[in-house]
Design goal:
alpha+beta
């Protein structure tokens, strides 16, 4: 998540896509703690369906975490 905070500070648009609503709410809560909640575009849905609709570059943090930056 540190890279995401760095990217937000540099002015990039950051998208958070999560299928599980509970996990999405937890991520929103964590982003509020770090003061970046309003700088992330939150999308509840399947990333395989959402990604084709976005023009973004992909950053892979791990097998479980993907960061999409426009």
């Amino acid at each position: 998540y540190l890279l995401t905070l760095f990217d937000i500070k540099r002015g990039f648009e950051v998208y958070a896509i999560e299928l599980d609503e509970g996990r999405l709410e937890m991520a929103k809560h964590n982003a509020q703690i770090y003061g970046v909640h309003d700088k992330i575009k939150w999308i509840h849905g399947d990333c395989l369906e959402v990604l084709p609709t976005l023009k973004v570059s992909l950053r892979v943090l791990s097998t479980k975490a993907l960061i999409f930056i426009q």
